[in-house]
Amino acid sequence: MKILLDGVEVELRGFISLDDEIDKAFQHFYTKFFNNYLSGRQETIDLLLREFIPSVHAFFDRNQTNNPRQDAFFTNMTFAWKASLDAGYLLDAQFLWEQLVLETRLWENKTGSRVHKGSALYFWGGTALMQGEQDKGYFLVHSAFQEDQLTSGEDLPQTPAFNFVSLEYKGDQYLREYTQSVANYFQQFFIQYRIERLSQFNLESFREKFLLNPPNVSTLFSLAHSLAKMQNWDNLPAYVFNNDFSAQQQLNLIFDLTLVIDETIRASYPNATHHTTFITYAEHIAIHAWLNLDLQDFRGINRRFNQDPERVLFDLIHRLFSLNNGRRLTPLESDLAICYCLRNRAAHRLEALATIGAFYRQICQSVANILLLAVETLY
Hints:
The protein has 18 helices and two strands. By secondary structure, it is mainly alpha-helical. Helix 13 runs antiparallel to helix 16. The model has no long low-confidence stretch (mean pLDDT 94).
């Protein structure tokens, strides 16, 4: 498609021709977008969209069951989105997708038909992530993934949203750099795990065993979101965490990771029900990973933790903890005990522990060790 930009004919390379009516609407939109909005800021993106939206609804009317053409429509909107990003108009870039999704849903509610909105939600979520709105970004990418599921009829459609959450950063995709950054951060935890386990387990093996075949999608997104949050917090100055509230939030994040471990083990546990507790799963992985801990040991550790949580957690972190019979726990046994104790603590007590704030990074490594152990051993 070609438009006039300051009197010069310019081609929008990659534009997908759909039909005469919507093509003309796009041409009018982009002519005003580049001449009156992007260059001179004489019109707002809001005004341009308001003028454009009736043509969008009419296009959906003509393509109610044509998912590829619906997706192509949103692809054609990326010219405005990319230009806004390049110009530094980040809020407008988000607003563009927000309004398009809103108007699409209004049309859906009116007609009772569905439009495939995966691309719009993915790009909106990616833009939010680029602006530091982490929770919003992950929520939107999850919505994009659900759209992809509905459209494809598959549980795990191989789309950009799935690549994002499964830490696949190869190929040409908008969130490649963000995904690679989270993947690289996660890889750091494999180093210590391989030392303690005497293993060659790596991220690629973890992806093949777990990320590409997760227990469920919620577990997949919870893990990716938790890793991104951990990475974000690691980039904050240390003095930000010199308070009880931050220690409580750190415990909440650790709890989220233990829930991922819970689901990871549950998927391999025979006859698991919603009433099966974490202590049962802890014994299950201990048996399969040749760790010398049973239900009685876990109960004893937890009793001592409840009596003196700071001391017991400190000893577990520093590999100083011994059972009542005098046997000192191995590093991975200590890690599993940490997961069990903190999962119980976070589920029942809204109270900070100073040891968590002081040794948060080591605790994260311990929890990561058990997640990696569960996947390597049980999958």
